[in-house]
């Protein structure tokens, strides 16, 4: 699985020949100024919740690529009003088999309003299971005991967790989350973008390595392969 990081909580994963883009927020992110959204490929766009820092570029990328947008019912209705009609609504607890594999929506402890103030439904995370492997994207969330269910349910090759604190869990709780989901390889998200969420990279990666786990802080625009 090839993972590319576009800054904040936006990344893509190439699975079974399809590109899945998560939470597109690029043009308002000064740290991602070198990324041109017109060069981003996507067959699917998964959106965890309605906040601006997860949905800002969703309409533009969806319209250009024709990607299927997967999100909760309320966000899909809102996207429809912006002219995005190639959508698939889901909600927490449900799963669906797409052509690249299975997506299951899981609980996230956060909030979800849309940029214009519309109701954004409940925030969620995604478990993606494909023949090449499985991964968990938690979305914006606090540490929650529900994550133990994920550890019991399926072994994930890697997980993407917020680590920036203030709006989501921080590094110490993300480390406990990694224990709950029983995953050794974590990609950090939702840090450094704003003043409230700036982190010390060395302190963060050291805490993970002392616990025998790996925290990857990917440079924006870079890609890695995890199998
Ligand atoms: Ni949020
Ligand atoms: Mn956020």
How would you summarize this macromolecular structure in one to three sentences?
The protein contains 6 helices and 14 strands. It has helices spanning 52-55, 58-65, 73-81, 147-153, 171-181, 201-210; strands at residues 2-5, 11-15, 18-22, 44-46, 68-72, 87-90, 95-98, 101-107, 124-130, 133-137, 158-162, 185-189, 214-216, 223-225.
The CATH class: Alpha Beta
Overall radius of gyration: 16 Å
| The CATH topology | Metallo-beta-lactamase, Chain A
- What's the rounded overall pLDDT mean? 98
Give the full name of the CATH homologous superfamily: Ribonuclease Z/Hydroxyacylglutathione hydrolase-like
- The helix/strand series, from N terminus to C terminus, equals EEEEHHEHEEEEEHEHEHEE
Structural class by sheet pairing and helices: alpha/beta
Number of H/I helices? 6
Instruction: Summarize the main sheet.
Output: 7 strands, mixed
Ligand catalogue? nickel (II) ion, manganese (II) ion
List the quaternary state of the chains: single chain
- Beta fraction of the residues? 25-35%
Overall shape: globular
Task: Describe this structure as you would to a colleague.
- Helix content is 22%, strand content 29%.
- Helix 4 (147-153) runs parallel beside helix 5 (171-181).
- It is of the alpha/beta class and 227 residues long.
- The radius of gyration is 16 Å and the shape is globular.
- It has a seven-stranded mixed β-sheet, covered by helices on one side. It has a seven-stranded mixed β-sheet with strand order 7-8-9-10-11-12-13.
- The chain has one domain (2-225): Ribonuclease Z/Hydroxyacylglutathione hydrolase-like (Metallo-beta-lactamase, Chain A, 4-Layer Sandwich).
- The protein has helices at 52-55, 58-65, 73-81, 147-153, 171-181, 201-210; strands spanning 2-5, 11-15, 18-22, 44-46, 68-72, 87-90, 95-98, 101-107, 124-130, 133-137, 158-162, 185-189, 214-216, 223-225.
- It starts with a strand and ends with a strand.
- It contains six helices and 14 strands.
- The mean pLDDT is 98.
- Bound molecules: nickel (II) ion (NI) and manganese (II) ion.
- Nickel (II) ion binds at residues 49, 51, 110, 140.
- Residues 49, 51, 110, 140 line the site of nickel (II) ion.
